[in-house]
Amino acid sequence: MAAPEASSAAVPTLMTNNTLRNAFGGVLSFFILLLIGVLAFSIRLFSVIKYESVIHEFDPYFNYRVTQFLTKNGIYEFWNWFDDRTWYPLGRVIGGTVYPGLTLTAGTIWWLLNSLNIPLSVETVCVFTAPIFSAFASWATYLLTKEVKGAGAGLTAAVLLAMVPSYISRSVAGSYDNEAVAIFALIFTFYLYIKTLNTGSLFYATLNSIAYFYMVCSWGGYTFIINLIPMHVLLCIVTGRYSSRLYIAYAPLVVLGTLLAALVPVVGFNAVMTSEHFASFLVFIIIHVVALVYYIKGILSPKMFKVAVTLVISAGLAVCCAVIAVLIALVASSPTKGWSGRSLSLLDPTYASKYIPIIASVSEHQPPTWPSYFMDINVLAFLVPAGIIACFLPLSDASSFVVLYIATSVYFSGVMVRLMLVLAPAACITSGIALSQAFDVFTRSIKFQLPGLSSNTEVDAGETSSATKEAQNDAVKTEKAEETSKDRPSRKSKKKEREHVEKPSTKTKAEKKRLLALPLEASVISLLLLVFLGAFYVVHCVWAAAEAYSAPSIVLTSHSHDGLHVFDDFREAYAWLRHNTDVDDKVASWWDYGYQTTAMANRTVIVDNNTWNNTHIATVGTAMSSPEKAAWEIFHSLDVKYILVVFGGLVGYPSDDINKFLWMVRIGGGVFPHIKEPDYLRDGQYRIDSQATPTMLNCLMYKLSYYR
């Protein structure tokens, strides 16, 4: 009897050691996450260090102007704000046409800081909002990946996301755009969905709906969530993985999430009336039919069950057909069948170029090239396939969601370069899983091969696993609510029967693990290669953050033999407008510069980057494409006093108006047929030299660009 007593006394000691080890691992993970947050924040500060604390690009200037209005006038004035300085003479209702998540977030941060007597300006808060939320996104990635494959994979994925260039391009200091907070909301919503799926907790399901609401407030890309999650639910149902946890994870999201989404003014009844949301409602009906079938199966005999299933499926199909018929009737009258132009561009990549040139003219809506994948996700492109394979070993509900996420995001990123941003978190998650699994295999192999650690590892592994199994058997939790009570005695008896068979000796377990170990040399070389791969990734990410994505488009730089040249022409031009024109003067320009003109020059513009009225933009495009007399008549009818044209021929600036001119012709010609693109081309080529066509040489854009 002494031997069993000694072994039972050893189990609490092992359990204590495991508890201490887990506690130390938890503390270490916490500090690593803190460092990852600091890394994610600091790597995005190159733009502030190299240039100054300034808002970047075009859209962020509108967001900054709206945030200024919010902090100055309050939230009620913000919801009711009619802006008469844009889209003259139409104007724009800001509260009903803007996603308010970013503005409300930055406004709340500014209010909290000022309440604590930290007097930061609104501009400073706007500049640093994106780096702050990139740290939050890294932590959300850790939580999501931890739910799928454990803490090691979570930490790896978090550090990869903190540095991935695709995300840095949209979250550097000064990039005050919707994606700054939306990517965090996207990842956090997915985490709460997986958490609910793993636990079956209604509390997490409610939090998931609230996180989805924040995502809807922040970005129009929320439709990706409300289509991806139903696809995963349908996948689980089709593959026989339905459970009550799946129902709890999905049903509250559709009901509560849709009700909350309808509260956002820019969405409103689109949450139930547009085709982007119909998939979620269809799967909502299907999951209720499946839940009813499982319920009937539990209370009826097999013979009665067959009859009942036939009735339920027949009724379910009838309801589905009725709903589909109603949806078809609702969208049939729409020329786009209820889909928005951008959604149709994702489903049919050629749609925008054929029918909506205003969407195709935006550079970020173009398909990416192969080098852009290596630029934006770098070595992750090669680790993603390994991560997908690791998700199948073993396949769970959570890992199948990750596989579906990476598959859909790869497709969408191939259609539109802007959606590389959606691919980045998925690539980091799968790559984190792949790296974590690879490090686990190689380090375990080295541990078993080293003579000093071999014997201790064998004993520890055997005893720890046996002690852990006993502890798990003592604390079994009924996670699957659909398991009936009549199944439980049989399962417990099966466990008892297997207890005597499934307790091999420590030596046998160690021999099995040794068979799974790789050769020592191969493991060491593979580890070194992985470290080298990681070092290459870090160097590339730091270079991309410092050089490629930190230069604000508002301030241009060039390098020559006599050093660095800074061109501050944009801000100087807007300052000239602000100081030398009347407050009520109207300024006409291409829509790219509308937000900046309103925010920095404080002058009324004809069109801006919101691009909601294609006819108004086509009018400006037609004026730019017309001879001076015809253009003067168009602009005079719009009360225009000044025309802003950007020309970079002297310094070779590639994004000036003469380079964009053909888009003005296409958009203008789409509404006004007398503007024809071939009239501006010489033998099918776009020329701006002396060989250009007479129509080109006499149009207003050419005259203004080459004036004197």
UniProtKB/TrEMBL annotation:
- Residue ranges constituting the STT3/PglB/AglB core domain according to the UniProt record: 584-642
Q: Name one Pfam family in it.
A: STT3-PglB_core
| Annotated TM spans | 23-43, 93-113, 125-144, 150-168, 180-205, 211-235, 247-272, 278-296, 308-332, 373-393, 400-417, 515-539
Coiled-coil-forming residues are none
Family recorded in the similarity comment = Belongs to the STT3 family.
* Topological type in the membrane: Multi-pass membrane protein
Q: Where in the cell is it found?
A: Endoplasmic reticulum membrane
According to UniProt, the name of this protein is: dolichyl-diphosphooligosaccharide--protein glycotransferase
| Taxonomic lineage from the root | Eukaryota, Viridiplantae, Streptophyta, Embryophyta, Tracheophyta
InterPro entries in alphabetical order? Oligo_trans_STT3, STT3-PglB_core, STT3_N
